Amino acid sequence: MTKKERYEKVLAWFKQNMGKVETELHYGNPFQLLVAVMLSAQCTDKRVNMVTPALFAAYPDAQSMSKASEADILSYVKSVTYPNAKAKHLLETAKIVAESYGGEVPDDDKLLQKLPGVGRKTAHVVQAVLFNRPEMPVDTHVFRVSARIGLTTNAKNVLQTEKQLVKYIPKADIPDAHHYLILHGRYVCTARSPKCTSCGISVYCAFYQQNTNIG
Predict the structure, then answer these.
(1) Active-site residue identified among 61, 86, 121, 176
(2) Which of 72, 76, 77, 94 could join 65 via S-S bond, C-beta 3.0 to 4.6 A?
(3) How far apart are CA 148 and CA 101, in angstroms?
(4) Are 84 and 99 members of one domain?
(5) Are residues 126 and 52 in the same domain?
(6) Per-residue pLDDT tens digits of the chain, which is 215 residues long
(7) Sequence-distant (≥ 6) Cβ neighbours of residue 8 within 8 angstroms
């Protein structure tokens, strides 16, 4: 099977069997999505969704959060990973969004990455989810699953993974493909015990072909 064929078959299966896909982070407006994605760095969506209801009730938008103190924000996010740094970045970002962008999350990737605490992956999630842009955010799930399936070859880091994925995935499919790979990694192609025998794409998977007794 060529790499092009593998991509076509895997994407076709995901489209047919996963239906409508979207982020599992809970949010009510673009700024809240940005905050949730920032909090999700090296943290689970489940944990983020536990802290954001109270955080968003207190600070529903950039203007209100920009007037908070770092200690106030920290009190809401202290159970996520790296809470001190994230509280600091949230306050700084809220001030910039409120003062420089009229409270609206910028829809430019370079502008997003200039915000404190917003790296390439976070910016790409915002671009893909909010603006349906053909950006491929690569987290640990996407990195692992892409390599296992055989969508990427010898990718040493997330940037190499991203470049290989966008080379083969049609632009219109990239926002959904990001979610397909994340959800597949969370619930099927798990890190320690991948559920290969119940996986719908095992027949196209390089890992499964090499380890047919995995189950």
Answers:
(1) 121
(2) 94
(3) 41
(4) yes
(5) yes
(6) 899 999 999 999 999 999 889 999 999 999 999 999 999 999 999 999 999 999 999 999 999 999 999 999 999 999 999 999 999 999 999 999 999 999 999 999 999 999 999 999 999 999 999 999 999 999 888 999 999 999 999 999 999 999 999 999 999 999 999 999 999 999 999 999 999 999 999 999 999 988 875 44
(7) none
Are residues 121 and 195 located together in one domain of the fold?
no
Told to judge if 139 belongs to the known catalytic residues of this protein, a careful annotator would answer yes
Longest dimension (CA), the chain: 58
Alpha-carbon 77 to chain mean position: 19
Last residue within a domain, chosen from 105, 131, 157: 131
Q: Quote the CA–CA distance of 19 and 7 in Å, as a whole number.
A: 18
Which residues contact residue 5 at a Cβ distance below 8 angstroms, ignoring those fewer than 6 apart? Answer: none
Number of compact structural domains in the chain: 2
Residues 46 and 72 in one domain: yes
pTM of the model: 0.90
Domain end among 131, 154, 186? 131
| CATH at residue 99 | 1.10.340.30
For the chain, count helices (H), then strands (E): 12, 0
108 noted as active-site residue:
no
Expressed as residue numbers, the domain containing 186 is: 3-21+136-210
Choose, from 78, 139, 156, 195, the residue flagged as catalytic.
139
Task: Say if residues 11 and 173 touch (Cβ distance below 8 Å).
Answer: yes
